[in-house]
Amino acid sequence: MCQLLGMNCNTPTDIVFSFEGFHRRGGLTDEHADGWGIAFFEDDGCRVFLDYLPSARSPVAELVRNYPIKSRNVIAHIRKATQGKVSLANTHPFRRELWGQDWLFAHNGNLVDLPESFACTHGSRFQRVGTTDSEQAFCWMLNRLAEQFTRAPDLATLTTAVRALTAELAGHGTFNFLLSNGTALFAHCSTHLYYVLRRAPFNTAHLADADVTVDFAQVTTPDDRVAVIATQPLTDNEQWTPMTTGQLLVFADGALAG
Questions:
Q1: What are the pLDDT digits (tens) for 107-130?
Q2: Are 19 and 55 within 8 A, CB to CB?
Q3: Alpha-carbon dihedral of residues 158, 152, 190, 41, nearest 10 degrees?
Q4: Which long-range contacts (CB under 8 A, 24 or more apart) does 41-45 make?
Q5: What is the pLDDT of residues 141-178, one digit of tens each?
Q6: How far apart are CA 207 and CA 143, in angstroms?
Q7: Which domain holds residue 69?
Q8: I need a labelling partner for 162 at 20 to 30 A (CA). Which of 40, 126, 146, 150 fits?
Q9: In 15-69, at which residue ranges do the beta strands (DSSP E only) sit?
Q10: In this structure, are residues 227 and 40 in contact, taking their beta carbons and an 8 Å threshold?
Q11: How far apart are CA 204 and CA 127, in angstroms?
Q12: pLDDT, mean of residues 36-43
């Protein structure tokens, strides 16, 4: 299965420390070598980096490692292909526009036997470019949201809608995912997903995949709040909370919102 990484903050923050460990799982400390991607929301814009090479030896990953982009919402993905060939078109996270907002989506799992009603046909507003079940699920969710709401609803209403759509898709296989519109970050767990909430007083953290340590107290302010979500814990000296099967959590401003 693939690996997911998400970050939600109350102030623009770089993900260099987490990515230093995460990118190694793409062909070095783990077997996920079928491409990778990472996307950053920056004000009203969205910066996306994709590569079909393993992240452990990708020149694009090297750029991201040394480029401290600050963002309030980040989604990253390391792929182990289940459906669709290894290609840029099949590399997560996927990006679409809805209600004048950029939306990002990354999936870890495998959806099978999707009924015909889940197909994004030629007349659908959102259609997949590649051949993955992941992109099909993303487009189907956005099509359904666009049908329900002509403009962006409040977060509570949106969460209710996303939860209902997630339940429909989760019945067809493994559906761990991260979804964001740049304001909130939705995380759904089918099998493995963990999160850690960092806030003052900040402590020192050590990566599980590399001998790298950071003292967050030296690079934050007392008002900072950061939520990090990952398929497996990225650090070995912090208390990561495991999500339960079927659980959908929403993170906003670096804290749990629902």
A1: 998 998 877 777 776 678 998 899
A2: no
A3: -130
A4: 41/71, 41/72, 41/73, 41/74, 41/102, 41/104, 41/180, 41/182, 42/12, 42/69, 42/70, 42/71, 45/102
A5: 999 999 999 999 999 999 999 999 999 999 999 999 99
A6: 39
A7: 3-108+175-256
A8: 40
A9: 36-42, 45-51
A10: no
A11: 44
A12: 93
- Residue 104 sits in a domain whose CATH number is 3.60.20.10
Q: Which residues pair with 28 in a beta bridge?
A: none
Distance of alpha carbon 125 from alpha carbon 143, whole angstroms = 6
Query: What is this structure's pTM?
Result: 0.94
**In the structure encoding, which two tokens stand for residue 99, read together?**
């209600």
Band of the pLDDT at 25, cuts 50, 70, 90? confident
Q: How many domains does the chain have?
A: 1
Q: Nearest Cα to 192, choosing from 230, 160, 156, 153? A: 230
Say if 50 falls within a structural domain: yes
Per-residue confidence (pLDDT) for residue 88, from 0 to 100: 87
Residues 206-217 as b/e (b if ≥16 CB within 10 A, e otherwise) read ebbbeeeebebe
Dig out the tokens for 24 from the structure.
């190694």
| Residue 28 pLDDT | 63
| E strands in 65-172 | 70-78, 94-98, 101-111
The residues that are catalytic are 2
**Selection from 247, 228, 252 nearest residue 175 by Cα:** 247
Residue 165 φ then ψ, to 5°? -65, -40
Q: Concatenated DSSP letters for 199-252?
A: ESSP-EEEBSSSS-EEEGGGT--TT-EEEEEESS-SBSSS-PEEPPTT-EEEEE
For residues 239 and 208, is the Cβ–Cβ distance under 8 A?
Answer: no
143 vs 52, which has greater pLDDT?
143
Task: Evaluate whether residue 8 is within a structural domain.
Answer: yes
